[in-house]
Prior knowledge:
Layout: E1 7-16, E2 19-24, E3 39-42, E4 45-52, E5 57-67, E6 80-88, E7 93-97, E8 115-128, H1 135-138, E9 148-159
Parallel strand pairs: 5-9
Antiparallel strand pairs: 1-5, 2-4, 2-7, 3-4, 6-8, 8-9
Amino acid sequence: MDYTPPLTITGWVHISYGQYYLMAHGAGEPEPPTEDGLILSNEADEGSLYIASETQHGKIRLIVRVYDREPSLDSGEWDHIESSEIRAESADIDVIKWGGGSPPGFTGLADSGPGLYEVRVYRRRRLFRPEDVSPEEESDRDVDIEDGMREEHLIEMWLADE
Length: 162
């Protein structure tokens, strides 16, 4: 049974070098990947995940949904889906861009408090048109959407049963 997540954030994230991170406060930076994959965990630190983008430099659309229990798989047409987990010692898990800093609104994602979070990441390319940009996203003046294919990611998170 699907339900509305308690927290949903949607926006455009600048990607550099085909990567961004999901990191708990106090976690070490993810190591550069030694294998291919959408999500790569840092074996030395449970508090950080490396997320790969097909876009090397530019903007991708990112949707983050934080649930209070495991949701069913998203019914959209996705090219790639992977799962992992991340541990937060506080309620702070953030999306971090390469080089540091979080995109506006993509902070404090451990909505259910500290603990181990299950993470599911989806990736696809889809056609975006200027009219596809919501009023909230229009405030990001750095986004110039022309007709064309753009990469989109969906991150779903929920507190794991430990």
